Amino acid sequence: MRIAKVEEEKGITVPSPYDRTIKVLFAPDRQGAEEMTFSHVTIPPGCGTDMHEHDRPELIYTISGRAQSTSPDAAVALGPGTALWVESGEMHKLLNTGDDSLTFVTVFAPAYPAETLYAACLERAAQQR
Hints:
The chain is mainly beta. It has one helix at residues 114-127; strands spanning 12-14, 20-26, 37-43, 58-64, 67-70, 75-78, 83-86, 93-96, 102-108.
């Protein structure tokens, strides 16, 4: 059995314009979880992710706060207790639409190494500056 605590993971802070903190808790290079990547994400009010896609599906589960998830085909509201399945190759983004921080977790399977996920997020933010 393995355990990870959000407060003990350093993670990364993605700079503006896509402000958020990402902490990968389980991945091949975090706790030796070869099968999946599990991360904890916090987005401040008014901030969000860029429009992006992944080469594998992503499960997003909202813990707290309010958001809008947008894809080319739809926009849906997310709140606590809402799960969102994003298909492989589907363009999507999240925007914190509430007055409080948005907190959610993500699962990727098959796994990304944490460092690969971190580098991709930082690179996309740097391209927008």
